[in-house]
TrEMBL record:
Belongs to the FOXRED2 family. The keyword Endoplasmic reticulum applies. Probable flavoprotein which may function in endoplasmic reticulum associated degradation (ERAD). May bind non-native proteins in the endoplasmic reticulum and target them to the ubiquitination machinery for subsequent degradation. This is FAD-dependent oxidoreductase domain-containing protein 2. GO terms for cellular component: endoplasmic reticulum lumen. The gene is Foxred2. Its cofactor is FAD. Interacts with SEL1L. May interact with OS9 and DNAJC10. Interacts with TXNDC16. The keyword Cytoplasm does not apply. Transmembrane segments: none annotated. It comes from Anhinga rufa (African darter). GO terms for molecular function: flavin adenine dinucleotide binding; monooxygenase activity.
Length: 675
């Protein structure tokens, strides 16, 4: 009854009672601020709602032991800012050079307090429109045919203030602790509240429930003061260097693996937590048993009347009692504030902690509701970096570009180049692009071919999961075929059970590039845009359907794909085979010869030589070409005709002084060497 007046006020609220914005963002964490930045730069009407008094409230508490596991590599040996973002996992994208994380910390694994300060500066320096101390407690829909998506989103905060928006971006992350209920679970301490003072655990025996980074982080903190630590989880330990997934166990936290394998009392066990039970004895010790031992028994009668596993199996692994049991099972998305009308559903299987969304990051149940940031990780869970700052800063930008096209008619940014620049464009991107590198197998560069393959249009970092919808989502047309440039690991190289340090684990020769294991560029070629049906039927673990042609650029130890023979030449020949054209660069002399000996000039000659474009030749450039075997070594008399022989030396000196070769005027247009 007490709720009736409140619910009635919601139902009776008139349109004038709502504060309207085109875009509403819930949450001022990293993804919420990143989305706000792009909307502000585009001049859109938006607001960010943050329940706390400052942005990044999650990082004010977590990780509990304050050390982030996102790397902050300040030195790479390069000054290219885009390349350096490949190894900066904390910075958000912006035009302001002051907002690079390395200006806030030099630590390779920074302190979480630094992240809080960074996010505060990001919001204040960029003057983002964040409304603090505003907790959204209810979200529902209002049908309206005039709205962008056929409905408005109605939001209500803790003070019963109502808001209306046309598009909703959910950036709340996953912050509700995962809890497993079993008999005796009331004796379990949560990661979110357990003491972080190691002295509180001195001389104690501890059981940790969980097997992720929070569990190992907790163990690492008390490893040196406890009697021993046991860790129980339903799955085996997954090492990030084996799975190539940054959310799995990182080396910075895996000290317990040493003490376990070197038999220093600590240990790891596998088991379903829902099958466990905890019984507390009179001394306050916690005994681990199995749920079925407690069925139809009165647990209040005392531990002496309860059968424990060691009563039947005297070497039961967890027969020793524990002083403390700590739950470190991660977090899940908060569905509680969303009305059923939004049809925001939980994921399936191991993705049930996330909401169900499309590869475009839009809710499967409600048009116009986008999930960004950590909560959007269902798109690439255990595959790429979409659940972390260095991944979702790019997927958030992709969502913004999709919205710009849908609601404001602004097509996906692109650049048009002549076809002669195709090889160079790809090589530049695979060596510099941070979005492709971090969001491997998820974001890709799309190259749309123009008619007769005379030019191409380059789109950067498009979500490959919606490739079939490219024309609708981007406002760009793809009638003449396309290339897709993506980064991938080897098909069978990643997994918890994989030995990633075996001999001959890397490939070095271009002819074996398809067997590359480490992250490397892959180029897919399609004669036409794949259909949604083809996307659904793509092979398992393939990011894309089977192409008409595919090319792997061989993996490189330095991740530097600029070797002329190993990287560039095979790529160029692949592109030539797909396009049935010659993509080489030629000297003007060669173009001059082709004009008399071929029916069709190569594109480089058509777009350069014939249009009087190129570099004026010099004797030094010509001599370099001759020594490299790229031009024939014509004698100077070939150009001087019937002049007397005694004038040869003086004429040659004159030519060298003039730095020009006296040939046909068109042949002054000398360009880069033939490849």
């Amino acid at each position: 009854l007490a709720l009736a007046p409140y619910l009635g006020s919601l139902c009776a609220a008139s349109g004038d009672a709502f504060l309207y914005h085109d875009y509403c963002i819930i949450g001022a964490g990293p993804s919420g601020l990143q989305a706000a930045y792009f909307l502000q730069r585009a001049g859109r009407d938006y607001v960010v709602f943050e329940r706390s008094h400052a942005p990044g409230s999650f990082f004010a508490l977590y990780p509990r032991h304050r050390k982030l596991i996102s790397i902050n590599k300040c030195y790479t040996g390069k000054s290219n800012s885009e390349f350096n973002l490949r190894h900066d996992w904390n910075s958000l994208l912006s035009h302001d050079r002051r907002l690079l994380f390395r200006r806030y910390s030099r630590d390779f694994f920074p302190n979480a307090d630094t992240m809080v300060r960074y996010l505060e500066d990001f919001a204040s320096l960029l003057k983002l429109r964040v409304q603090y101390n505003t907790a959204i407690v209810h979200v529902t829909l209002e049908r309206d045919r005039q709205a962008w998506n056929g409905h408005y989103f109605l939001l209500t905060d803790q003070d019963r203030q109502n808001y209306k928006c046309s598009s909703l971006l959910v950036a709340t992350g996953t912050w509700v602790p995962n809890v497993v209920n079993f008999p005796g679970s009331e004796y379990v301490e949560g990661y979110e509240t357990v003491s972080i003072n190691p002295e509180d655990f001195a001389g104690q025996t501890v059981l940790i429930l969980g097997r992720g980074n929070s569990a190992f982080e907790t163990a690492e903190n008390i490893l040196g003061v406890t009697n021993f630590i046991h860790m129980v989880s339903r799955s085996r330990v997954r090492l990030s260097w084996a799975t190539h997934y940054v959310g799995d166990l990182r080396a910075i936290n895996n000290g317990l693996l040493d003490t376990y394998q070197l038999k220093s009392l600590d240990g790891l066990l596998e088991g379903d937590l829902e099958d466990l039970a905890i019984v507390k004895d009179k001394k306050g010790k916690l005994h681990i048993t199995l749920r079925f031992y407690l069925e139809n028994r009165n647990t209040s009668a005392g531990i002496d009347s309860i059968t424990l596993p060691q009563d039947e199996l005297d070497n039961f692994a967890t027969r020793a009692p524990y002083d403390r049991v700590i739950r470190c099972l991660g977090w899940k998305f908060d569905f509680s504030i969303y009305n059923r009308s939004l049809r925001l559903m939980t994921g399936k299987g191991n993705k049930k902690k996330y909401p169900q969304i499309k590869p475009s990051y839009e809710s499967k149940g409600t048009r116009g509701l986008f999930v960004i940031g950590t909560a959007s990780h269902s798109v690439d869970f255990r595959k790429s970096a979409g659940g972390f700052i260095h991944g979702f800063r790019y997927t958030t930008r992709a969502v913004h570009r999709l919205l710009e096209n849908r609601h404001h008619g602004v097509p996906w940014p692109s650049t048009v180049y002549p076809i002669t620049q195709l090889t160079n464009s790809i090589i530049k991107r695979v060596n510099e692009a941070s979005g492709l590198y971090q969001m491997f197998s998820v974001l890709a560069d799309i190259i749309l071919l123009r008619e007769n393959a005379t030019a191409f249009e380059y789109l950067e970092e498009y979500p490959v999961g919606v490739l079939a919808e490219l024309e609708v989502q981007t406002g760009r047309k793809a009638p003449n075929g396309l290339f897709v440039v993506i980064m991938e690991y080897g098909r069978n190289f990643s997994g918890a059970d994989k030995d990633v340090f075996y001999y001959n684990r890397a490939v070095g020769e271009a002819q074996h590039a398809w067997q590359s294991n480490f992250l490397h560029p892959v180029i897919y070629y399609y004669n036409r845009l794949p259909t949604e049906h083809e996307m659904r039927l793509r092979p398992p673990d393939w990011p894309l359907p089977r192409p008409d042609a595919i090319h792997h650029i061989v993996e490189d130890f330095l991740t530097d794909w600029t070797a002329p023979n190993a990287h560039i030449l095979p790529l160029r020949r692949f592109l030539e085979n797909c396009l049935s054209t010659d993509l080489r660069n030629f000297f003007a002399e060669s173009c001059f010869l082709f004009a008399f000996t071929r029916q069709k000039l190569p594109p480089f000659c058509q777009q350069g030589y014939v249009r009087m474009q190129g570099l004026v030749g010099s004797e030094r450039l010509r001599r370099h070409a001759v020594e490299a075997g790229l031009l024939e070594d014509y004698t100077i008399t070939d150009f001087l005709g019937n002049r007397p022989s005694d004038s040869h030396e003086g004429s040659q000196d004159h030519l060298l002084r003039d730095h020009a070769i006296p040939v046909h005027p068109l042949q002054h247009l000398v360009t880069a060497k033939d490849e």
